[in-house]
Amino acid sequence: MEVLPLLFEERAHNLEIYAQKQIFNRMAILNELPMNQNIAGEFTNMVASSNPDALTGDPITTSEGVDFTEIKFGEPSEMRGSTKPKGFMFRMSKRVADRGRLESTLQIFINKSIGRIINYYDALFMNGLVAGSGATAPADLTPISQDITGFEVLANEIKIKDAMEFQNDNDTGFSPNKMYLNRADALHVKLALTEAGLTDESEFEYVPTTRLPVGTQVARDTVNPTATIEKYADPEYSILAQMEAESETGRLYDENGNQVPPSFINIKISEPDEPQRSNYYIFTEAGLNIMEPSGIMTITGN
Questions:
Q1: CA end-to-end span of the chain, whole Å?
Q2: Residues 6 or more apart from 204 whose CB is under 8 A from it?
Q3: For residue range 207-254, what is the model confidence (pLDDT) as tens digits?
Q4: From CA 48, how far away is CA 293, in angstroms rounded?
Q5: Distance of alpha carbon 138 from alpha carbon 144, whole angstroms
Q6: Which ranges constitute the DSSP H helices of the chain?
Q7: Do 87 and 266 meet the contact criterion of CB atoms below 8 Å apart?
Q8: Around Cβ 19, how many Cβ atoms within 10 Å?
């Protein structure tokens, strides 16, 4: 088992660990979607569902000379996707370091960069879920407002689950259990369920976000794979990616035996140049890959 040290010798490695922790703590979606180390930087988004053909026959009992019924998958619509490298560079002069302001100045740079990176990818991933939604939302949902009741929230859940689970009267194999929604809408839902004493009856996990407008929600099946985050952490600039590549399992653990989130951040520190300045780079490269649109539903005007 590959265990991370409490402190690395290289400054870049320690900066990476700090940035990594901050980003994963503040971007919930990074902990919810599988990640794939994508060296090529390209992938294929499924625009239309690749669900089994509706005309596939019923399962049959096999006997000699009789084959099982074949499940035929329709040809899905595809769209090419690519990872999006984003990051920042900061120049540090020798004078700043000599005056003892290196650590505090670096902290400011890293924190500002992390905030901007989070804002960019949070919006990119949420917009990707909205654009990649393939399940049709029911038309008779009760709009979320301060007047919605707990019973109406549960009724909405039942309708949403049924609409995703059965499309054109065919069982899709997907069932929503997580709902992303605007912070204001999330508060209305939480209050409605609490006031009615129905919190434990809800089958959805409601995740507030600032990336969706009021009245728009995204329901997703998190049990079955619907989307992945395609990313590339360069082993040359990421100690985590380097250690993952060297590990037999590709997984890393902290000193307590807890699995460490996969590498996501790249850090580079250049050697001082004229006039004695070092360049600090923090960047990441990622994109959202829709695997199965039928497991994602966008609800608007609600």
A1: 48
A2: 157, 176, 177, 178, 179, 219
A3: 999 999 999 999 999 998 899 999 999 999 999 999 999 988 888 888
A4: 7
A5: 14
A6: 11-26, 28-32, 94-98, 102-132, 150-165, 183-195, 239-246
A7: yes
A8: 21
Quote the domain boundaries for residue 215.
150-225+295-299
pTM of the entire predicted model: 0.81
Question: Residue 1: pLDDT band by 50, 70, 90 thresholds?
Answer: low
Q: Residue 93 falls within a domain, yes or no?
A: no
- Tally of structural domains, the chain: 1
Q: Are 159 and 176 in contact (CB under 8 A)?
A: no
Pull the structure tokens for residue 273. 């140049």
For residue 165, being part of any structural domain is answered with yes
Q: Which of 10-19, 165-174, 176-185 has the highest mean pLDDT?
A: 176-185
Question: What tokens does 15 get?
Answer: 């900066």
Residue 256: CB atoms within 10 Å: 6
Number of residues written out for the chain: 302
Scan for tokens 């922790």, then name that residue: 21
Calpha distance 75→190 (Å, rounded): 41
Contact call for residues 160 and 137 (beta carbons, < 8 A): yes
Q: Would 133 be classed as within a structural domain?
A: no
Q: Which amino acid is at 80?
A: R
| Residue 169: φ, ψ to 5° | 65, 15
Which CATH number characterizes residue 167's domain? 3.30.2320.10
| Cα within 13 Å of Cα(20), Cβ side | 19
Cβ proximity of 225 and 256 under 8 Å: no
